[in-house]
Design brief:
Layout lengths: L14 E5 L4 H16 L3 E7 H6 L1 H7 L5 E6 L16 H19 L1 H5 L9 E5 L5 H8 L3 E5 L3 H8 L1 H6 L52 H11 L7 E3 L3 H12 L5 E3 L3 H11 L17 H7 L6 E5 L8 H14 L2 E5 L17 H10 E4 L4 H6 L3 E6 L3 H9 L4 E3 L6 H11 L3 E3 L6 H14 L1 H19 L4 H15 L3
The chain binds uridine-5'-diphosphate-xylopyranose.
The site of uridine-5'-diphosphate-xylopyranose has 24 residues, from helix 1, helix 15 and helix 16.
Amino acid sequence: MGHQATGAAAGLPPHVLIFPLPLHGHVNSMLKLAELLCLSHLHVTMLLSDHNHRRHADVESHFSQYSGFRIATISDGLPDDHPRVGQRSLDILTSLMRVGGEEFRRLMEATDALSGGGSRRRVSCVIMDGVLSFAVPVAKEIGIPIIYFRTVSACAFWANYSFKEVVEAGEVPLKGKDEDKYSYGSKPELDLLVTSVPGMEGYLRRRDLPGFCRVSDVNDAIFSMIATETRQTSLVDGLILNTFEDLEGPILDQIRKPIPTLYSIGPLHAHLQARLETDKKNRSLPAISLWEEDHACMAWLDTQPARSVLYVSFGSITLLSKKELLELWYGLVNSGQRFLWAMRPDSIVEGDGESFVVPAELEEGTKARGHMAGWVPQNKVLMHSSLAAFFTHSGWNSTLESITVGIPMICWPYFADQTINSRFVSEIWKIGLDMKDTCDRAIVERMVRDVMEVRKDEFFERARRTAELVKKAINEGGSSYANWNRLIEFLKSTIL
Ligand code: UDX
C-alpha cells in the first residue's frame, strides 16, 4: 500500500490530501485537522470547493505560517447563486456525488500540481469526508490509502451506519404524507424506543433518530445515500471521529466491531489549542468565518454579571420561519433572563407572509436584557465569564465547543445529526434539555428558566465535570492524544 518515494521526494514528509464536504461545519473541523497535521510536520493539501474558497480568504492567510500547506479547488457543481443553506444545503452533497468523481480523478491525476514542483512528494494518503465515497476507487487505483473523517458525533455516525437494520425493523420512515415538521411533536408513536441501533436500545426514541429518517419513503434519495455512504466506511483504511472515549466510549466500541481502525481524536478545536500551547506557538485557533465577525457583543458581555447570559445561535445552516423567530424570541424575553442572540444575516426564511414588524414588547425586552449580534466569535463567547448556557441547534461543532468549556445547553435541533446529538446531551450526558419537535414560547420560557435558574447548579456541575474529561483526553496520556500519535504513525508508514 505504501507509496514509494523516488529521487527528489525521498526524505520529504508524507503528503496528505484532505477533502471536506464543502459545508461550513465540515470545513471548519477539517481545517483543525489540517493544522494538527501541519504541526506534526506533514505536508497538507486542503481541497475546497471554488465557492468555499472564495468565501474563506482567511484560510490562506491563517495557514501562510505553514510552508507545507496548500489549497486546491474543485467545483461543487452548483451555480454560484445557489443559497446552500437550510434543507437546500444537502444539494451540495447530491451535486458532488454527481460531478465529484470526475473532478477528483482529474485532480489526483494532475499530481504535479499537488506536488509543488518537487518540494512535496505526491499525495501519499487521502483523508476524505466520509460521505464522498467516489474518492475510494480513485485512491485504490493510484494505490494510496484512504481514511474517512466523519464530522459528526459517534452516536450519529453509528445510527447512520445502522440505517439498514432500522429499515428492516420497520422503525422508519418517520413521516406520513404531507405532514409538516411540527406534527412530530404530537405523535406519541415517535416516543417508542428504537430496537435496531446496537447499544442504544434503552434510550433512543424514534424521534431522536438522525433527521435523515424524517422521510415518508425509505427510498428517499438523501436517506438512501447516507445509508449507503456510511455503510461503505468499513471498506476504507480507517475512520477518524471528532469525539473522545470518555464521552462516547460505549458507542465507539460498537463502531469498532465493523470498523476496527478507529481514531477518536477530538474535540479537535481543543486538541489543536493544546498542541499549539505545548509547541509554545502563541497562535490562536483558525477563525474561519462565513461572515465578518461582530465583536461588539464581546464588549456587551463584559458589562454583564458572571454566569448570567444565555448565548443563542443555531449555526451556519439553520433557517427560521418568522413564526419560529417570534416564538423563540417571546420565550426568551418572557423568561426574564439575559441573552445574546447571534443571528446569521441569511437565517430568516424570505417571503413567508407579510413583512416582519418586531413587536414593541420584544424590542423593549431585548433592550433591557438582551443583545442581538450577527456572526460572532463563538469560541470566545462561550469562554466568557458572563456565559451561563447555550441555546443551540446541536450541530456537532457547537456541541463540542460548549462541552469543552463546561456550558450547559438547551437544544433545538434542526436536521441531520442534530436530532440525536440533543438526545445524548439531555439523556446520556445530562448537561442540558432537549426541545426537539416543538417551537412554543411557553416551552422556551420554561426550559430557559430551568437551565438558567431552577436547575442551574445541577447542570453546571455536570457540565464542569464533562469539561474535565475533555482536558484529560487531549493532554499527554489521554485517549485523543494517544490516538493522534497512532494516526501520525500510520501516515508516516504510508511512505515507507
Ligand atoms: C452542521 C451539523 O449539524 C454538524 O453536526 C455537522 O458536523 C456539520 O453540519 P453547522 O450547522 O454548521 O453544522 O453547525 P456546527 O457543527 O455547530 O458548526 C457551526 C460552527 O460555526 C461552530 O464551529 C461555531 O463555533 C461557528 N459559529 C457559529 C461561529 O463561529 N459564529 C457564529 O455566529 C455561529
